[in-house]
Design goal:
Elements lengths: L4 E3 L7 E3 L6 E3 L6 H6 L8 E3 L6 H14 L4 E6 L8 E8 L5 E8 L12 H4 L1 H6 L8 E2 L8 E2 L2 H19 E4 L5 E12 L5 H14 L1 E6 L4
Bound molecules: iron/sulfur cluster.
Length: about 220
């Protein structure tokens, strides 16, 4: 254990809220969490947190490596697309000599009062949405009775979805209820919006679905 002094502390009680941006101060030392991370936990080589299994020296090495990787990069603000919490993200990009833009890193925004720099495992994998080679980039279709998927065009899928919606709507459209009241509604289709919807997307899709007569509308943000 050369050069390291084991200590057992719980980190969170030592952070206290300070400032309009929700930055927290590390009560133990007086400097902020951001500074703590920025400095790579100055003197990290001198101790580590044994009870949490969190090796500050490793964190420091990772931080330094990331600093090099994102040096000179453009920082853009974004929002995690996965759920309604809406955690704030920072995306680091760099323009290459050939004009292409390379995504270098995505991380939680420490200035956000929503997530204060943290991300859950889903949000932490946000970069994979953009760069993972395992992502499907074109639609697959498995015909009824078929046992394998085949690659199809987006036009094929849009036509297919439109046809299925039309058929289901025609089949389940109700013009009058049991009491003879005119209702003109489609009871055979439900629609659920995702948390990644913008206000405008939510407005437009709601209009479209209401126009089709749908009454069962839901949004993940309400869940
Ligand atoms: S990081 Fe996790 S909690 Fe935050 S918005 Fe994304 S999925 Fe939701």
């Amino acid at each position: 254990m050369t050069g390291r002094r084991p200590v057992s502390i719980i980190l969170s009680p030592f952070f206290r809220q300070s400032g309009a941006k929700g930055e927290r101060e590390l009560g133990l030392t007086g400097f902020t969490r951001r500074e703590f991370l920025k400095r790579g936990a100055a003197g990290a080589g001198a101790f580590y947190v044994s009870s949490l299994g969190f090796d500050v020296a490793v964190a420091e090495a990772t931080t330094i490596k990331q600093h090099l990787r994102i040096e000179g990069a453009t920082v853009s603000h974004s929002v995690c697309p996965y759920c309604a919490v809406g955690c704030s993200l920072l995306a680091y990009t760099r323009k290459n000599a050939n004009g292409s833009v390379e995504l270098l890193q995505i991380e939680g925004n420490p200035d956000s009062p929503v997530n204060e720099g943290t991300l859950c495992p889903k949000g932490a994998s946000a970069m994979e949405l953009a760069i993972s080679k395992r992502r499907f980039v074109s639609p697959l279709y498995r015909a009824p009775g078929a046992d394998e998927w085949k690659q199809v065009s987006w036009d094929f899928v849009l036509d297919k979805v439109a046809r299925l919606i039309k058929d289901a709507r025609d089949r389940t459209f109700v013009t009058k209820d049991e009491d003879g009241n005119v209702v003109n509604r489609c009871e055979g289709i439900a629609f659920a919006g995702g948390a990644a919807f913008s206000n405008e997307e939510g407005y437009l899709t709601t209009k479209l679905m209401r126009g089709l007569g749908l009454v069962y509308l839901e949004q993940q943000a309400r869940v």
